[in-house]
Structure formats: C-alpha cells, structure tokens
Amino acid sequence: MALKLYGDDAANPLMERDHPLTGTSQYPDIREFETHLDLPSGTGSYHEIYFGDIHIGYGTASLADKVLLNFETDHETVEMHFALKGRSSAASGNFSKNIDFSDCQNNIIYASGMEGTMEWESRNFELFEINLSPDFFKRFLPDDSLLFETFRNSMEKGIGCQLGPSHHKISARMYQIINEIISCDRKGMFKRMLIEAKTIELLLLQFEQAADQSQTKSALKRAEIDKIQAVKDFITANSQSDHSLIELAHYAGTNEFTLKKGFKELFGTTVFGFWNDLKMEEARKMILEKEMNISEVADAVGYKNSRHFSTAFKRKFGIIPSQLKKF
C-alpha cells in the first residue's frame, strides 16, 4: 500500500507512505506515525495507526486560504470517512463526480489505484478515516438490501463508489468511538484488540445509517453549524465543569433554542445527554484503571453527590459503580 500527497512539487511530497494493508501482513503488531505537514497557506499534522487489515489516519490543519493538493494511491481500499470539521472536495477519474464532504458528515468509499486532487477550505480542518482491506470489509457487508449489493458489485468490478448517494451525520456515539480510538493509551495486542473492536462498532453504525432511508438532510446554516461545533468542542475539553445551556449558547454566540434544536439535529442527542455520556465514559475508565474510590470518581467528573453519580452511572451502563470495581 503506497500513498503520496503533494502540492505543486511532486518531487518533494508532503507525505509519502509505503506499508501493507492485508490480513497476512508481515507487520502484525501496531505501528504508528506522526507527520507534520507544511501546507500551502497553513500547517497541519496527521497521525497514523496500522496493523493487519486496518489503517487509521486522523489529522488537523489550520489554513489561511484554500489548499489544493494532489494525491496518488496504488492500493485497493474501503475507507470509512468522517469529516469532523471543514469542507473538502476530491476529484479523480475513478469517480463519476467529485466527492464533497462538509462538517459532521460520514460515508464509506471504495477506491482502487487512483490519483487526483483534493481541495480543503480555508479554516480549521479535522478528519478521521479508517481504511480497510476489501476482504476484511466484505466479512461484515450485509447482503440483505439493494444498496449493499450495489456497493459489493462495484467493488467486484473495481469501480470507485460510495456506499450511500448522500452522506450521513456523524452521531454522538460515533464521536465517542472516534475519541476512544484516538485517546487509547493501551499498548501492543491490547490496543490492537480495542481498536479492531471499535472499528467494527463504527462500521455497524455506518451500515445502520445507510440502511435507514428516513434520515433527512440538515437545514442548519453553516454559521450555526460552526457555533454548535464550538459548543461540542468546549464540552469535550471541559467535561468536568458545570455550565448552563444559556451559558453555553452565549459562549458560542447563539441562543438557547438554536443550540438545543441544532445540537440534537447535528449529533442525534441533547447537549446534556452528550455531556453526561462523556462524563460516564471518563468515570468508567477511572474506576477500571485508577486507584480511586467511588466518591473520588464522582467528584472528579463533577458530581457533588455520590448517590446521584451512581444513579447516572447505572442509567448509562446498567450497573452501579461499585459493581464495576468487582470485575
């Protein structure tokens, strides 16, 4: 598997990788790379994790102007693409039309040995993608609908395609899984096991979205999406603090109604539902991995009353915190 990303100068690529993506890889252990990108009109970074059939990449960029990049790949892959922030557009002769992504969108893309151009817009840009070997992907691809069968047939013919004709919103649970993968501090086989399990769960959620034809396109304006994204980022970075909905709305420069309605539409959950899930996941990790008692964990995630914390924890996981400590 080889990937080359470059600007106007093909002789000096911004990033170049050559590593396997097969189940019989000679590199069964996890390997990771961190690449600093000196982009036209900005800078960025890209982190990669790969082993066996799975190659994960996630990165950020801060751009003063639009950036046009060229890319080349010589491999066959299925990409689980998540556009966390910013807009992008990719053009290649392997596809009948451009593949455009905006904030909070996801889809599954099949590609085989392609080259083309990518354009990133001028702002903060974040993406997360998982590339799977076709054999690994086909193990999970459902065969009970025309949508999945059409995608399978295109793969068999080597024709570039995306699973759904339109992209879907990244759900709150998808964001949680992505964060769990990025923040995973396990090592070796334990890290590989967790990442593979989370990859399969993400794939399941994408399949379920694709199969659900009832989803409607978001009516949110771009400025509203930016403000709601800012609230999500603030919550993620300050999960243990305490703020009212009005305070969060004022922080982002919007009103309470727009924040409530837009957050639910964009992420499929309420502001405080998303916030509470973050707290409970952090609490679960503390209980399992740190020498802390329940009162200390409750206080660490912002609960002054241990009983209220235990009630919230049971609502999320089905057991009280003290039961988890016994496992």
UniProtKB/TrEMBL annotation:
SMART domains for this protein: HTH_ARAC
Keywords: DNA-binding, Transcription, Transcription regulation
Pfam families: HTH_18
Transmembrane segments annotated in the record for this chain: none
InterPro entries in UniProt: Homeodomain-like_sf, HTH_AraC, PchR_regulatory_protein, Tscrpt_reg_AraC-type_HTH
Record domain HTH araC/xylS-type: where: 229-327
Leader peptide range in chain numbering: none
PANTHER family: REGULATORY PROTEIN PCHR (PTHR47893)
Protein name, as recorded: AraC family transcriptional regulator
Species of provenance: Chryseobacterium vrystaatense
